[in-house]
Amino acid sequence: MTQQDERGSSINLQYGLALALGLILLAGFAGFATDNVDTKSDQVSQSKMNIIAEQTSTKLLQVYNRKQKTEANGDVERIEQRVRLPSKLNTNNLIVTVYTTGSNTKLIVRSSDPQETIKTEKTLPSDISTETTTVPANDIWIVYDESEGNYKLSTT
Question: What's the rounded Cα separation, in Å, for the pair 99 and 75?
Fold first, then answer.
């Protein structure tokens, strides 16, 4: 004779426990996926800012070098150089600031969104004196004007 198990097990209880366990696992996976997407988004933003900072500082150095050459040959009045960023680069919410403090000239690319904390900073040669200017990152011009005696960023 076989002995029968007389312990009761509620189907509702089993269903409820399985459902609760499933929800906990689903919430864990959703949290992991969200963190992963945020990390990838931050990496893309940082890469974009690095590209803008590199290209803008390169153009600023080109204007500086052109100024040095033309000064040796004669009079320098005004030098302008446009920073052409890749068309695929979405720069809508990015701003570029250049400034000189003491012997340091810095170029900073950051988001105009106050909640975004990612930024890229690039140090330039100390003999490049700049006027503190902030411009949107979508249409940047580097300008050297002899009458003002310094470099600045412009949008025109």
Answer: 25
